[in-house]
């Protein structure tokens, strides 16, 4: 597996943000016609309490998602999901 190419953007006011540079081949195997950068899991707001209005962030937290500050090359944590039933007659088709 080849090392991941990265690109760092100096964003005002968020600071340096590093994402994955996709310049050869997309994940589905298709060739890239123009390079793009994937910034994964950038936090954009906090929720101060349940069912309250979100508050937009004006900076990236130093301790966000257990990753180096400004590194958005990997996906973050997934939202919790309740196990879904499977099989005939279930909503997932089975």
UniProtKB/TrEMBL annotation:
One of its GO terms (biological process) is monocarboxylic acid biosynthetic process. It comes from Penicillium desertorum. This is Uncharacterized protein. It comes from the Eukaryota. SUPFAM superfamilies: alpha/beta-Hydrolases (SSF53474).
């Amino acid at each position: 597996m080849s090392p991941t190419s990265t690109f760092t953007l100096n964003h005002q006011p968020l600071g340096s943000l590093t994402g994955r540079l996709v310049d050869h081949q997309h994940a589905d195997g298709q060739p890239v016609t123009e390079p793009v950068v994937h910034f994964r899991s950038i936090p954009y707001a906090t929720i101060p309490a349940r069912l309250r209005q979100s508050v937009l962030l004006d900076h990236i937290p130093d301790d966000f998602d257990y990753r180096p500050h400004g590194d958005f090359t990997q996906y973050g944590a997934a939202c919790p999901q309740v196990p879904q039933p499977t099989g005939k007659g279930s909503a997932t088709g089975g």
